[in-house]
């Protein structure tokens, strides 16, 4: 007699590697990040540094706390990234005069100029993904939903 589980339920309980959504996410993340590497190396950046700059290019001067929130990174992970970008001359840090606990991060002229050089990166990555605009939006929507759902779990 066969199992009463549907194929989806059987897959949910499977221990086969190719049935694991987490592995598909991991493999896709590694592939995309690898594709970024040569593009970002040409700019003198790592992928996490690029993400920090994306936040600053979008919002201007930002407290470190807000950068961490935008990237889902804790202070201990973010601080070394910020320090390396500061050493490279791409941004500066300063304490907010009215609240010494808040550290503001600001792009330098060099950091602002790098934005123009980085404009080709999203296009190159989009082409490498080979998705239609509709597929791209659907994938982004599902990944954001998955992140929100998993993050909401205790």
From TrEMBL:
Chief location of this protein within or outside the cell: cytoplasm
UniProt xrefs under InterPro entries: HTH_MarR-typ, MarR/SlyA-like, Transc_reg_Sar_Rot_HTH, WH-like_DNA-bd_sf, WH_DNA-bd_sf
Subcellular location: Cytoplasm
The keyword Nucleotide-binding is assigned to this record: no
Domain HTH marR-type: start-end pairs: 18-148
PANTHER family associated with the record: ORGANIC HYDROPEROXIDE RESISTANCE TRANSCRIPTIONAL REGULATOR (PTHR33164:SF5), TRANSCRIPTIONAL REGULATOR, MARR FAMILY (PTHR33164)
Descriptive protein name: MarR family winged helix-turn-helix transcriptional regulator
Organism of derivation: Streptacidiphilus cavernicola
Phylogenetic classification of the source organism: Bacteria, Bacillati, Actinomycetota, Actinomycetes, Kitasatosporales
């Amino acid at each position: 007699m066969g199992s009463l589980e549907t194929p989806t339920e059987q897959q949910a309980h499977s221990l086969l590697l190719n049935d694991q959504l987490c592995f598909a996410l991991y493999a896709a993340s590694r592939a995309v990040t690898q594709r970024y590497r040569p593009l970002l190396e040409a700019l003198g950046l790592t992928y996490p540094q690029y993400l920090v700059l994306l936040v600053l290019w979008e919002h201007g001067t930002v407290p470190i706390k807000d950068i961490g929130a935008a990237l889902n990174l804790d202070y201990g992970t973010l601080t070394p990234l910020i320090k390396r970008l500061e050493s490279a001359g791409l941004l500066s840090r300063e304490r907010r005069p009215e609240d010494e606990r808040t550290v503001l991060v600001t792009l330098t002229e060099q950091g602002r100029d790098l934005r123009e050089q980085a404009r080709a990166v999203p296009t190159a990555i989009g082409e490498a993904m080979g998705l239609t605009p509709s597929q791209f939006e659907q994938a982004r929507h599902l990944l954001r939903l998955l992140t929100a759902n998993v993050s909401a779990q205790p």
